[in-house]
Amino acid sequence: MYSILRKFLFLFDAETIHVFSLNMMSFLNSTGLLKFVVKKRIAAPVTVMGITFPNAVGLAAGLDKNGRHIDALSQCGFGFIEIGTVTPLAQDGNDKPRLFRLPADNAIINRMGFNNDGVDALVSNVKQSNWYKQYTQLKQRNSRCVLGINIGKNKATPLENAVDDYLICMQQIYAYADYITINISSPNTPGLRKLQHGEGLSDLLIQLKNRQAELNQQHQRYVPLAVKIAPDLDEEEIKDITTRLLAANIDAVIATNTTNSRPSLLSKQQLAEQTGGLSGQPILELSTKVLKQLVKALDGKIPVIAVGGISSAADAVEKINAGASLVQIYTGFIYSGPKLISDCASALTCMGALNSR
């Protein structure tokens, strides 16, 4: 059914349909109809970062930047969803058009540029969600979709002051997130990826961990920090990053963000020349290569959440076999719909059952 619907949706501008589809999902959820067109969440609990995830399949950041659709997305069967990237101040992002589909490759190119309504608006949306209201009433999260919040810096903020933006966002969202992702790897904010390297990375991580400790004391609740890295890194860069992550006691790593590279298999070369980050099936090999190098360098000391190119249950299994503790999907969800979530969760559940024998 989704494949038929997708043909209709793909007749229209990618960003327009992105917004329309999310609004329609939220409408169907509010009327109680969404649960009849998606499968029930598969229960296969896994504990990572001290958090119990209902299952190991999550939604990567970027789909719901402002946290307006938490309830609808959590209804789709995800074990966890990550909202954002959010910045301290609202910003429009880059000029349109900035989102391009490559259907023959199950891929997307985007140069959105952290378009969002700002951290205050995101917090307001989280507080208004049924997800949050249920938590405040039940005071427990184990049976519910886990919520990650992805934070970044405003485009206008000089790179040398980037830490201030991350600290502002952390302060605002700490009470509402199950975990927080530090996005230093988007290719669409000028200079951002420089934060992945050298003493600048160490300084950023130390300040974030210090603020985490303060907020833990204030709220009497520990919220783990994950760092999201790029796929466009060589082995020496990965080793340097892992050394700094371990030294700062970061709680998890997400590998990987979108890539600036353009694999030769891309069919629509004209679109492939568009500036922006490539996601989807073509980056599976590159992303998994970085994942394996990262897992080897970390030697089990920090869990890794794998994202990048997952278009089938087999891809999700490959990521777990490569050493990931959890997986996230984004572009695959756009092309395959909610079925991909249940397919991946089922495959990982079977995989876990076999491994436990």
Account of the protein in words:
By secondary structure, the protein is of the alpha/beta class. It has one domain (39-355): Alpha-Beta Barrel (TIM Barrel). It is 41% helix and 16% strand. The chain is built from 13 helices and 13 strands. Strands 3-4-7-8-9-10-12-13 form an 8-stranded parallel beta barrel, surrounded by 4 helices. Strands 5-6-11 form a 3-stranded antiparallel β-sheet. Strands 1-2 form a two-stranded antiparallel sheet. The model has no long low-confidence stretch (mean pLDDT 94).
Short précis:
The protein is of the alpha/beta class.
Write the topology of this structure:
Layout: H1 2-9, H2 14-30, E1 46-48, E2 51-53, E3 57-59, H3 70-74, E4 80-86, E5 99-102, E6 107-110, H4 119-128, H5 130-138, E7 146-151, H6 162-173, E8 179-183, H7 198-219, E9 225-229, H8 235-247, E10 252-255, H9 269-272, E11 277-280, H10 284-298, E12 304-307, H11 313-321, E13 326-329, H12 331-336, H13 339-355
Parallel strand pairs: 3-4, 3-13, 4-7, 7-8, 8-9, 9-10, 10-12, 12-13
Antiparallel strand pairs: 1-2, 5-6, 6-11
Helix pairs in contact: 6-7, 7-8, 8-10, 11-13
The helix/strand class is alpha/beta
Number of domains: 1
For this structure, the CATH topology is TIM Barrel
SSE pattern, N- to C-terminal: HHEEEHEEEHHEHEHEHEHEHEHEHH
Tell me what portion of residues adopts beta-strand conformation. Answer: 15-25%
Number of helices: 13
Widest beta sheet: strand line-up = 3-4-7-8-9-10-12-13
Instruction: Write down the CATH class.
Output: Alpha Beta
Main sheet record: 8 strands, parallel, barrel
User: What is the typical, i.e. mean, pLDDT?
Assistant: 94
Name of the CATH superfamily:
Aldolase class I
Overall shape: it is globular
CA gyration radius, whole angstroms: 19 Å
